[in-house]
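In the previous lecture we treated proteins in isolation. Real proteins rarely work alone, and many bind small molecules. This record shows how such a complex is specified: first the sequence, then the SMILES for magnesium ion.
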Amino acid sequence: MGFADSSLAEGRSRRTAQGRIDAPGGDQNAAPIPVKLVVAGGFGVGKTTLVGAVSEIPPLTTEEEMTVASEGVDDLTGVERKETTTVALDFGRITISDEIVLYLFGAPGQNRFWPLWNDLALGAVGAVVLVDTRKLEDAFASVDFFERRGIPFVVAVNIFDDAYHYEPEEVREALVIPQEVPIVICDARDRELAKNTLITLVRHAIDRTP
Ligand SMILES: Nc1nc2c(ncn2[C@@H]2O[C@H](COP(=O)(O)OP(=O)(O)O)[C@@H](O)[C@H]2O)c(=O)[nH]1
Ligand SMILES: [Mg+2]
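The predicted 3D structure, ligand included, written as tokens:
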């Protein structure tokens, strides 16, 4: 896509003009800037699916077959068809322009993995909080986490076939999301929609940079 012409590229030059990022100075050989993003949200919301859909390298994922050991531990309500679970994290990469390459870290959704989140969030430029409208309340912990740390985030409503389709503004109200935080409709299985979600996040993160 013609990302180099987009407002993200403009946003980046704005930052460059202010001297916050080393100017590429038109150097065609300059390495792209690595940008770390976290994909968060509750269990079974589509994090692994999203990272797999957009990654240009085979996503590194640490999915394991769910075993009886997770019975009664992982809440499968609404995701009964889920057969695997992320035991550590998902990792993927996507180049969105000559200048920016995104490194995606999918956080494990289960509460018992919370201690990992602090490490995952280190150095992150922004986060996608994936939301399943059948289990809206699962998003609160992620929203709180990034708000507390001042990490810019966007909320992506992942549409599941049997879920009622809420308008983004209804989701904003239900989750008490500030007006400046973008809310996008996504399908984690769809590469373009997932990619647009990431681009919205990068733009938002640039806008949020003082
Ligand atoms: N209908 C629908 N199913 C999805 C979507 N995203 C993920 N799924 C399915 O939901 C299940 C859980 O997704 P997964 O990516 O493993 O969730 P995670 O726990 O957040 O990593 C899988 O069976 C996916 O195929 C979506 O956008 N729409
Ligand atoms: Mg997963």
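Summary for your notes: Strands lie at 33-41, 60-65, 84-95, 100-106, 126-131, 153-158, 183-186. The chain has six helices and seven strands.
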